[in-house]
Amino acid sequence: MRIDLHCHSTASDGTDTPAELVRNAAAAGLDVVALTDHDTTRGYGEAIAALPEGLTLVTGAELSCRVDGISMHMLAYLFDPAEPALLAERELVRDDRVPRAKGMIAKLNALGVPVTWEQVERIAAGGSVGRPHVATALVELGVVPTVSDAFTEEWLADGGRAYVEKHETDPFEAIRLVKNAGGVCVFAHPAAAKRGRTVPEARIAELAEAGLDGVEVDHMDHDADARDRLRGLAKELDLLVTGSSDYHGSRKTVALGAYTTDPEVYGEITRRATGAFPVPGTGGA
């Protein structure tokens, strides 16, 4: 059983539509795929309508959080998408994305980069605007060779020359909101140091005490040492260990199913969730 619990579509910053994502997941030999777009559940309907037979969809979202001045992401699974408090917080984060992107564009213009809002808006194609869309614009302009190369201090990394902060949820509040909506919380790529500062292990222990369910260990941004360290921490804190591709379509080089989650861990996630249930495919449209 092959399970990938972290994927993005055009509802946020992926390049596959939700329908294309589930079809590509089936073609990649996955049995379970999670749709975890940034701060939005907008892709659910299209993904479910296109879900191929034999593939199960886990609904979720990747929530933008910040603690001690450090940006972090929280994967929320199988919550009730209509629960009012969590919905209001997601909308608050999402609505701040446009002025943030325009602020980054202004900083890039001041640095002599001729990126425009119209260019970034075209790249986003109706999805929740994020840094990867601005990074893609830099690739189009020949400023950097790849999207990943834009996430440096020179450009868009936390604290970088063109970085602009946005509203981000306190992770302790995020856990409370997700739990109240019947969901399960997993800390996404906690050791991805190349993205900026990482959350100290002492803080992760506090998050575990507050109800954090797991940590994403097997991820393209974690080297072998980081994975070993995170596995040890997860065991110490009694946290679930997940693995996933963090697939963004052609915006990243990683393939669907490049990293996967153990079926027993997936089973525990589904047992803990009360807000929604995995959706089995019946053939799709």
Structural write-up:
This protein is α/β, with parallel strands linked by helices and 285 residues long. The protein is 38% helix and 16% strand. It contains 11 helices and 8 strands. The chain has helices at 18-27, 44-49, 84-95, 97-110, 117-124, 131-140, 147-150, 171-180, 201-209, 224-237, 263-272; strands at residues 3-7, 32-35, 56-67, 70-77, 184-188, 214-218, 240-243, 279-280. Strands 1, 2, 3, 4, 5, 6, 7 and 8 form an 8-stranded mixed β-sheet that branches. α9 (201-209) links the parallel β5 (184-188) and β6. The mean pLDDT is 95.
Number of strands: 8
Q: Topology as H/E string? A: EHEHEEHHHHHHEHEHEHE
Question: Kindly state the mean pLDDT as a whole number?
Answer: 95
Distance between the termini: 24 Å
Structural class, from secondary structure content? alpha/beta
% residues in beta strands:
15-25%
| Main β-sheet description | 8 strands, mixed
Helix content: 25-40%
Number of helices: 11
Unreliable stretches: none
* Radius of gyration using CA atoms only: 18 Å
Shape: globular
What's the helix and strand layout?
Layout: E1 3-7, H1 18-27, E2 32-35, H2 44-49, E3 56-67, E4 70-77, H3 84-95, H4 97-110, H5 117-124, H6 131-140, H7 147-150, H8 171-180, E5 184-188, H9 201-209, E6 214-218, H10 224-237, E7 240-243, H11 263-272, E8 279-280
Parallel strand pairs: 1-2, 2-3, 5-6, 6-7
Antiparallel strand pairs: 3-4, 3-8, 4-5
Quick structural gist:
The chain is of the alpha/beta class and about 280 residues long. The chain has helices at about 20-25, 45-50, 85-95, 95-110, 115-125, 130-140, 145-150, 170-180, 200-210, 225-235, 265-270, and strands at about 5, 30-35, 55-65, 70-75, 185-190, 215-220, 240-245, 280.
